[in-house]
């Protein structure tokens, strides 16, 4: 089945011809309460799935490990997943690896790094940090504080992310390392579910976190945290969440997969339009979904940040990009960058076989089958990343998938541990 979509007429598209070979088109989808689940939620709430003859049954879950396991055990047909999760699964990483692929990225953006107000105030005093300091300046200031803490015999900061195989983990580590901080020995990294991060920060259980929206803004508006970096500061094109599914389910539900991709594509276009953000924010705020204040969600969608409770603000253009710039395209070179970070931090071994397995997690062929051969970007599926204006890594590195080993070895800060696959979980 091949269908194409356009921005101006998605509401008038007819569903593809129905066939009876796949049974019921009820698709059960797990998700975590985050704004980057918007495309899935909009697909169910605003009729995009129904238009394609699908009933999308959304199930809210509490942790990424749960989502992974319930997909593996067949309780979910598809799932809202962290972009590295299919890569990890195809590499056999984690306590319960099960083959998982993605034909569709759910967008870019949404992550940020928040530190406790106490820690940020110490950074300001130690480094003479200004209120308008950028992400790299903030990381370097934290490095100065950690050096001082070690000299005084103090416990190093405890920092939280959501899952060992997550964009949050790799972005947090990337930001820390760019500032001269070794995530392996200069801080303690722990796992905390996104909705609990603000409370954990307020209680002093953690000193900072990297999670998706709206939980960074919740912490800053409560006066317990300061946002010091956003995903766009680290690498703007990094894929955030994807639609995960089992390869066997995909193969036995080919038409349903295509219909679902068509519905998601239409919903992603709708989510990108500013005039739809009030309706989207109202839907996301519902207790069935994110259960966060609608005004915070609306500000997050607009990229309008209260960095702290003192009135410091920042506006990030395209903080969420649900469709534009081919944000939904599952590009294998991005899967390979994720793999490079797994190697960099001792989660995976470097080998040609592992590189092939990592790239196989992202399936642009399924995307193009659903939306038409010309639906994807004009450049190669495996390309150099971070070499264009507006899409550079914060430390100036460029990722060439043809030279993976050289890329990893080119970082001054990287793990010296041997890879121990299968041992990390959350």
TrEMBL record:
InterPro entries: NrtA/CpmA_ABC-bd_dom
Compartments in which it is found: Endomembrane system
Gene Ontology, cellular component aspect: endomembrane system
Pfam family, one: NMT1_2
Keyword line: ATP-binding, Cell inner membrane, Cell membrane, Membrane, Nucleotide-binding, Transport
GO MF terms, alphabetically ordered: ATP binding
UniProt main location, coarse: membrane
Domain of life of the native organism: Bacteria
Record protein name field: NitT/TauT family transport system ATP-binding protein
């Amino acid at each position: 089945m091949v269908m194409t979509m356009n921005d101006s007429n998605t509401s008038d598209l007819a569903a593809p011809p129905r066939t009876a070979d796949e049974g019921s088109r009820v698709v059960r989808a797990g998700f975590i309460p985050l704004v980057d689940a918007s495309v899935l939620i909009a697909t169910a709430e605003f009729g995009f799935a129904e238009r394609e003859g699908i009933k999308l049954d959304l199930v809210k879950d509490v942790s990424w490990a749960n989502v992974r396991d319930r997909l593996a055990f067949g309780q979910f047909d598809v799932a809202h997943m962290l972009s590295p999760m299919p890569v990890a699964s195809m590499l056999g990483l984690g306590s319960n690896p099960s083959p998982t692929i993605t034909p569709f990225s759910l967008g870019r953006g949404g992550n940020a790094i928040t530190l406790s107000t106490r820690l940020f105030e110490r950074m300001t005093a130690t480094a003479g940090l200004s209120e308008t300091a950028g992400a790299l300046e903030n990381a370097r200031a934290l490095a100065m504080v950690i050096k001082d803490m070690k000299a005084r015999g103090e416990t190093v900061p405890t920092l939280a992310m959501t899952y060992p195989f997550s964009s949050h983990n790799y972005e947090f580590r990337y930001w820390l390392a760019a500032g001269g901080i070794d995530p392996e020995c200069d801080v303690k990294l722990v796992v905390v579910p996104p909705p609990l991060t603000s409370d954990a920060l307020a209680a002093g259980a953690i000193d900072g976190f990297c999670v998706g929206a709206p939980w960074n803004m919740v912490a800053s508006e409560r006066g317990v945290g300061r946002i010091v970096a956003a995903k766009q500061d680290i690498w703007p094109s990094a894929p955030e969440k994807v639609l995960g599914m089992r390869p066997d389910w995909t193969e036995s539900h080919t038409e349903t997969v295509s219909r679902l991709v068509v519905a998601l594509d239409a919903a992603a276009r709708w989510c990108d339009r500013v005039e739809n953000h009030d309706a989207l924010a109202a839907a996301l705020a519902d207790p069935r979904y994110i259960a966060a204040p609608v005004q915070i969600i609306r500000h997050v969608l607009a990229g309008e940040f209260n960095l702290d409770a003192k009135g410091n603000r920042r506006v990030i253009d395209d903080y969420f990009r649900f469709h534009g710039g081919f944000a939904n395209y599952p590009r294998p070179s991005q899967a390979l960058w994720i793999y490079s970070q797994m190697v960099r931090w001792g989660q995976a071994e470097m080998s040609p076989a592992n590189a092939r397995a990592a790239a196989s997690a992202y399936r642009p062929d399924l995307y193009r089958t659903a939306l038409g051969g010309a639906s994807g970007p004009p450049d190669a599926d495996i390309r150099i990343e971070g070499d264009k204006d507006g899409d550079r890594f914060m430390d100036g590195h460029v990722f060439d998938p043809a030279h993976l080993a050289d890329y990893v070895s080119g970082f001054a800060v990287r793990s010296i541990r041997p890879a121990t696959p299968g041992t990390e979980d959350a």
